[in-house]
Specification:
Blueprint lengths: L10 E9 L3 E7 L4 E7 L4 H8 L7 E4 L5 H8 L4 E4 L1 H12 L6 H13 L5 H17 L1 H4 L2 E3 L5 E3 L2 H16 L20 H16 L5 H14 L7 H7 L3 H8 L11 E4 L7 H14 L2 E4 L14 H8 L15 H11 L5 H7 L3 E4 L1 H17 L4 E5 L2 H17 L8 E3 L5 E3 L3 E4 L3 E6 L2 E3 L4 E7 L5 E4 L9 E3 L1 H7 E3 L2 E3 H4 L4 E8 L7 H7 L3 E10 L19 H9 L8 H12 L2 H8 L1 H9 L5 H9 L3 H9 L11 H8 L39
Parallel strand pairs: 1-4, 4-5, 8-9, 10-23, 11-21, 11-22, 22-23
Antiparallel strand pairs: 1-2, 2-3, 6-7, 12-13, 14-17, 14-20, 15-16, 17-18, 18-19
Helix pairs in contact: 1-2, 3-4, 3-7, 4-5, 9-11, 14-15
């Protein structure tokens, strides 16, 4: 439970974030910090009241008008004035006009929506209301147009615009659209946009997306942890852990299914590398108590769990009797079967194999994106099952939107009712989608809805729910997905990330290789082994946007070979807790570490005597780079001799000129990587590798 807030704030921002169809977290914050949060099954007045009762009534509350909020405000904060989040209002406008309106009335309303976000004072607010009133009068006849229904009756021809007008009329009449600029305030109120939309909602949703696949208990705990750490006076981690509800407490509260195993059962866990250590421990403990047996099936070299993982890899490497498949069955070409195993273990000579078979392409971001997309679309037009794989969710969303637009243009998809999916794109009848959450309640005669399954939409209902069936199935096997499931757990599946691609098999795969800190050998291995007939890599060499990390685009001589060389050395395989402890003990007990500690005083003395000022020398000694500096000074001697003393070398390393009393007669040559093989894009991970 969040703490009680006694301080009266000028403005409080509130919003709700849904965790699937089973829970919602309601959050309140001021301009800088989270003030309170409340997790409930549904967003209703009782839930809002439970949150608001623990926070002193503010002078102004900014909200998006969610279910039950206004009723709770009138009861708990009766004297608090309401300001509607204009960013949310703009979202309502764009749902009616789309982001690229075609009708002139839609274009004008869209421009009004964008100008709404820039209103800063009472004069601008008055001008906006006047412009909106003029729009209503100018298009009154147009919006009144009606169309007859086939079954009788009529409907507005421009129904979405009519709904947007009705919503805006209510807001203007209620006086909640520009409350923050009311001259009656004795001080300037903060901007009208709901801070939770960007400052809290967006990063919190990103946390949940980064840990996609977590069960509800872990998602709730992630929300609790994030809110605690972003409150005004965050508690120490140890204290947070004391008040954090346990998995058992949350599971009991939400009636999650516990141990349902029976004696003699065989429990098979597929894709076991994706199973978190704690989840695996809970399952095996429940199975042992029931007398059941657990069988783990998977590849320790593939992508890892979003929770604390490494247990599957530990079990494989700790046993001598773990069976392992020796034949690759998915891939059709003999050379690619062998190459995939080399790729699995990060052996860099395999790059030449893929280059020799013309499976690797290179270029800038725009060219590679177009090439991958064009090749994928060509395969689809030839009747092949093909998948586009990208590194980031932003790239995936952009490719999905582009694919759907082209399918509409070539009449593969017909215009009709649409629904909004989890990442923002829209979908309609005929679209191919992917479900992202297991739900055993949604079933057909062959099974239930699973995470990572692809489907085809066959009908869109007025309440936002959709009817789906497996791709290629013409009759039967239909399932209805509720509207809240669609909004939270469904996305287009023309393009996917490597995590979503793991476990699927297609005829061809087209992989965009964009080097990010999250790009690892495991990502590349999974992505380049999805297609039976062909797996193509499109390596992006330029810097598509600003990166804090180093990027191949910093090197004008970067090639696909050099990028992939670094990528294959960057393993993302996670060590188990036991392996981490062992590795740390070995590192700190090694002769090299002991020698480095013994030489610390020597290097400190050299730095202080190198000609730097006292302040510069102290800054060098206290910096994170001091360890790297001492390693450079203690490293192997270069093959060419030099008369430069160590103290002069240290002064050059930190960017200051050496003492002028003894100029060096030569310089130490920097070690260079072999031709075409620069240093890795990211530091290579000294972790246990994994298998298929």
């Amino acid at each position: 439970m969040a703490p009680v807030v006694d301080e009266v704030h000028d403005a409080v921002f509130v919003d709700g974030i849904h965790l699937g169809c089973k829970a919602v977290v309601l959050i309140a914050q001021n301009e800088k910090h989270v003030l309170g949060w409340y997790v409930a099954r549904n967003e209703n007045s009782r839930a809002w009241a439970a949150l608001m009762e623990r926070i002193a009534p503010p002078r102004l509350v900014v909200a998006d008008g969610g279910g039950g909020f206004e009723k709770a405000r009138k009861k708990v904060w009766p004297n608090t004035r309401t300001q509607r989040c204009t960013f949310h209002v703009f979202g309502q406008i764009t749902r009616a006009t789309t982001l690229r309106p075609r009708l002139e009335a839609s274009k004008e309303l869209y421009r009004l929506g964008t100008s709404l976000l820039r209103v800063c004072d009472a004069e601008e607010a008055h001008a906006w209301v006047q412009a909106y009133t003029d729009w209503c009068l100018r298009w009154e006849t147009f919006l009144a147009e009606k169309t007859s229904r086939d079954g009788g009756g009529w409907e507005y021809t421009h129904e979405r615009l009519v709904r947007a007008r009705s919503s805006l009329n209510r807001l203007v009449s209620a006086g909640v659209l520009f409350t923050f600029v009311d001259p009656a305030w004795d001080r300037q109120m903060p901007a009208m946009n709901n801070r939770i939309e960007g400052a809290t909602n967006a990063p919190l949703r990103q946390v949940l997306r980064d840990h996609w696949g977590m069960r509800l208990t872990r998602r709730i705990k992630a929300v609790f942890w994030w809110c605690y750490t972003h409150s005004e006076q965050p508690l120490p981690a140890a204290q947070i852990l004391k008040i954090m509800p346990t998995d058992a407490q949350i599971e009991a509260a939400w009636h999650l299914v516990g141990a349902t195993f029976q004696a003699g059962q065989l429990v098979i866990i597929d894709e076991a590398s994706l199973t978190g250590t704690l989840s695996l421990d809970r399952i095996t403990q429940a199975a042992a108590e029931a007398g059941a047996k657990v069988l783990l099936v998977g590849d320790y070299a593939q992508l890892q769990s979003v929770d604390a993982g490494g247990a599957f890899s530990l079990l494989i490497h700790d046993r001598d009797d773990a069976p392992e498949l020796v034949d690759v069955h998915r891939l059709s070409h003999a050379w690619e079967k062998t190459a995939s195993l080399e790729l699995r273990h990060g052996r860099t000579p395999v790059i030449d194999t893929y280059l020799a078979h013309e499976r690797i392409h290179e270029g800038d971001a725009e060219a590679m994106t177009d090439a991958a997309y064009t090749a994928w679309r060509h395969d689809r037009q030839q009747g092949l099952a093909s998948v586009l794989i990208a590194e980031t969710r932003e790239n995936v969303t952009a490719l999905n939107v582009r694919a759907r637009a082209d399918l509409i243009l070539d009449d593969t998809l017909k215009p009709g009712p649409e629904i909004t999916l989890s990442d923002g794109p829209r979908a309609g009848v005929g679209d191919t989608i992917i479900t992202l959450h297991n739900d055993r309640r949604l079933r057909n005669r062959h099974g239930w809805v699973r995470n990572g399954q692809t489907w085809t939409i066959t009908a869109v209902r007025d309440d936002g729910s959709v009817t789906i069936r497996p791709p290629g199935a013409r009759f039967g096997n239909s399932i209805v997905l509720p509207a809240d499931y669609v909004l939270e757990h469904v996305d287009l599946s023309y393009a996917v990330t490597a995590h979503r691609a793991q476990g699927i098999t297609t005829d061809t795969a087209h992989v965009l290789v964009l080097v990010e800190p999250t790009t690892t050998r495991e990502n590349l291995y999974v992505a380049m082994t999805r297609g039976r007939e062909s797996n193509q890599a499109y390596v992006i060499l330029d810097r598509p946007d600003d990166h804090a990390m180093s990027h191949p685009g910093d090197n004008p001589d970067a090639t696909a070979r050099t990028v992939l060389y670094g990528l294959l050395q960057h393993s993302g395989a996670e060590l188990s807790a036991h392996e981490t402890i062992t590795a740390e003990q070995d590192r700190w007990g090694s002769i090299a570490q002991l020698a480095a500690a013994a030489q610390h005083d020597r290097w400190t003395t050299l730095v202080r005597g190198s000609g730097l000022t006292d302040e510069q020398a102290q800054a060098v000694i206290e910096s994170d780079a001091f360890g790297a500096l001492t390693a450079e000074l203690a490293g192997p001697k270069p093959t060419t001799t030099t008369s430069t003393p160590s103290c002069h070398a240290s002064s050059r390393l930190v960017g200051s000129p050496p003492p002028t009393t003894s100029p060096p007669s030569s310089t130490i040559a920097s070690p260079t990587p072999p031709p075409n093989l620069p240093a890795p894009v990211a530091p290579a991970s000294h972790r246990v590798s994994s298998s298929d």
